[in-house]
Design goal:
The protein has one helix and four strands, in the order αββββ. By secondary structure, it is α+β, with helices and mostly antiparallel strands. The longest helix is centred in the N-terminal third of the chain and has 17 residues.
Length: 93
């Protein structure tokens, strides 16, 4: 009785693998490459993006209540309430 589900599983697995064969290529033809008029997969724009300097909700690394701060880079934030610069983790993107 246990052999029937095992046989069904084996047959479905081998049938699935058999249908996943190579693509439909004609013998003697090379795969077609996208022409240069198609859009590129990678951006060719070399202008640097401007960093997002909008205020964020920050959880200070040393503990304490979250504060709203402006990112300065490297996980350092300038709190909007006038507190000294703090290291923290942004809670908002």
């Amino acid at each position: 009785m246990k052999s029937i589900p095992i046989v069904i599983l084996v047959l479905s697995t081998t049938a699935g693998c058999a249908t996943m064969g190579a693509g439909q290529y004609e013998q003697g033809s090379a795969p077609s490459w996208p022409d240069s008029s198609s859009p590129s997969l990678f951006s060719t724009d070399t202008t640097p993006s401007t960093p997002d300097m909008s205020p964020r909700l920050i959880l200070p690394a040393g503990g304490g209540t979250p504060v709203i701060g402006i990112p300065l880079g490297g996980g350092i934030y300038l709190p909007a309430n006038g507190d000294p610069v703090t290291v923290g983790i942004p809670l908002t993107p």
